[in-house]
Amino acid sequence: MNNEPNYYYFPSLETARLKLRPLAVEDVDFFFSLLTDPKVTQYTMDEPPLDCGQAGDLIRFYLGPRGKTENRWAISLKEDGRLIGTCGFHKWNQQCMRAEIGCDLSPDYWGRGYMTEALQAAIRNGFERMKLIRIEAIVYVKNNPCIRLLERLGFQREGRLRDYCYLNGKFHDQYFFSLLRKEVKI
Question: What is the tens place of the pLDDT at every residue in 76-87?
Fold first, then answer.
């Protein structure tokens, strides 16, 4: 694992309408609200935090020690600084030059192209700064908005992971997507 500081790999980013910055402990109320919104959680295969304390623990995990393999950016509107979602990389394997990408967006901002814009910046950071060759995504098979988003960004569906997640007393299938550096113009 490279010993460069995390901010080198996960700096603040800007797009035409958005700012992406590392998630901070001060974001806990927004983060808890986002991760417990039924419209958001209908598509996630993770248990939502039970309280702000658990949401804070998750933020502190992302802010963990140098050389980490996980990150999360808070996404805010440039015009007023309002937080609208998060995105980031998980399971970064530097040796194999791959990581998994994930995102959450407040339903009030769905359908406006914000997550496309945020993920384009994150993907560019992944290929340029993190030196990734491959970015992966695992998506619940019923999450059609996310599936369309990934396909718009150039991700290819590689297969179906049968009974991949267990939640609420039953198993759920997931789709496995990838985007290769050689497939995109940076």
Answer: 999 999 999 999
